[in-house]
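---------- Forwarded message ----------

FYI, see the RNA pseudouridine synthase record below. Original note from H. follows.
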Amino acid sequence: MSFEKIQCHIKVTSIDVDAVTLLAQETGLSKQKIKIAMQKGAVWLTQGKQTLRLRRAKKALKIGNELDLYYNQQVLDEAVTPAEMLFDEGEYSLWYKPYGMRSQGSKWSDHTTIDRYVALNCQPQRSAYLIHRLDRAATGLMLIGHTKNATRAIANMFETRNLTKYYQVIVHGKFPTGTVSINTDVDNKPALSHATLIEYQAQLNQSLVSVKIESGRKHQIRIHMASLGYSVVGDRLHGKADEQSPNLKLTSCYFEFTCPLTHSVKVFELPQHLQPSFE
């Protein structure tokens, strides 16, 4: 099956034609397809030094503006399971991110990202700002800011490691009892994780493990567990999973911190039914 993939860049020379019409004329795509792409974050508008996604079809253009379309039908057709709000703290909230939902968009779209989902579906409706990231294949708790002040303050806690967070993973093999600390570098940068066995399932030869990380490197938990010989179930990148394997068994389960807005201690734990389970 082939999918349309088009990149288009236009310099605006007249204010008499809107963005949808310009892009349709240039690409041959229907206006309806352009509008859908616009809603899903595939159209960008540059005004001076500022480049932002353009979502309003009727936004007035100025001579000298630049329009960019990154159209990939396969990307635009992607759909994900909805996220679920679990805790609402007003200026920020905590959501369950399902498998497949992204933490960050690309030039091709942002319609499958958690912050875009929250912006469109949060009740009452509020702005949504990404505070931290979680792998596309991972699941679990994510903090979303609703004001710039809250976002900045909570993001600072992540940067300074001034909060406690735990993950749960299911790994292949019988993980050792007690707490195991792993300090293998990730991407040539120092990284430290602490892993503790919760339960061993002998029939499957799999272990449920709690992991606390002291650093936040990309794929840190997956790389550290694999480095010990206990790859995460469902890990197709660092483990031994294939297309028939279950989804990645890595879940963000717990946050504890002193709220920078109220200065009270906050504890947020993922409900049991959303935590990883043996299959």
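H. also flagged this: The chain has three domains: 5-76, 84-160, 164-252.
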